[in-house]
UniProtKB/TrEMBL annotation, chains A, B:
Record flagged with keyword Hydrolase: yes
Cofactor: Mg(2+)
Region entry Disordered, spans: 1-22
Protein name: Nudix hydrolase domain-containing protein
Length: 179, 179
């Protein structure tokens, strides 16, 4: 008899037929768990008065630190749609996406981040969603740099500041040495 | 007794605890198969004489049609590294990546494509890899438009042609109405 405990997923590493690298294959059912890098979509969100939207993380990792509204792109979604959904989920914020600000690649955690420059359309109606403990709109000079959650938040805010007067530009990529 | 047939993966759709949308969950072992969009990386590859590299597909889909060297980004890879690997696998081509040419989103098949402009470094030494039936280097006027494999190949070649004299530009995105 196979008990429910026997049936918990149990993966071993092997190279499937016709493949050229090791994958995780379930010992029980043969399911191949193809792991591909995941796409994070998010935005540097600017209100009409130039203030920037930050969200205080209510969840790990980096709970209590400030971040941009961002998260995993879902299947069937265009990246801009995903960035708008994340802002809605985390801050009840309605965005107008302006353009792609940056593409960051974080191979260590297998993420590619697509970060947009966006305009906040409902600044008087934003409120924290379940993954946010708090929100704020801050002018550039008041960004809490030491309390930002991730390096790419720092990079994206700097990229926004450098390019804020520009209409067309190549998207920023990882700063020198930045992984 | 559970036979091997009983153990083939069998997924049903349900919303896992703490999640907000349906996922495929294995009836046998409870494994949750999070499906995220996948990242395709590839290049418009140009030889020093201005000719463009095309690869004839040896595999389905669109076997026998011409495409750009491109494929799925693997875990732990930066997108530029993935684009270089794909050119090596499909054409034994060594590239110098120049810049991001285009980002195309194909939500219907949950793909985000990052296509680079790249220089071919070893034009006299290219040869078809296992997924290519043939290769060719063609001048712009000889591109076999009706025999290109995918709409995004057409889009990327046009984007390359439009921007080939430009050093810095915003990456192209899906043409109007293009999904």
């Amino acid at each position: 008899m196979v008990t429910s405990e026997d049936m918990t997923p149990s993966f071993s590493r092997k190279i499937p037929d016709g493949d050229d690298r090791e994958r995780s294959v379930c010992r029980h059912c043969g399911f191949i768990d193809y792991q591909n890098p995941r796409i994070v979509v998010g935005s540097v969100v600017v209100a009409g008065d130039g203030r920037l939207l930050l969200c205080k993380r209510a969840i790990e990792p980096r709970k209590g630190f400030w971040t941009l509204p961002a998260g995993y792109l879902e299947t069937g979604e265009a990246p801009e749609e995903g960035a708008m959904r994340e802002a809605r989920e985390e801050a009840n914020a309605e965005l107008k996406i302006d353009r792609l600000l940056a593409i960051y690649s974080i191979p260590r955690i297998s993420q590619v981040q697509l970060l947009y420059r966006a305009e906040l359309l409902n600044k008087d109606k934003i409120s924290p969603g379940p993954e946010s403990a708090d929100l704020k709109l801050v002018p550039w000079r008041d960004i809490p740099w030491p309390e930002l959650a991730f390096p790419s938040v720092v990079w994206a805010l700097n990229a926004w500041n450098e390019s804020k007067e520009e209409a067309a530009f190549a998207p920023y990529t990882n700063p020198q040495g930045g992984l």
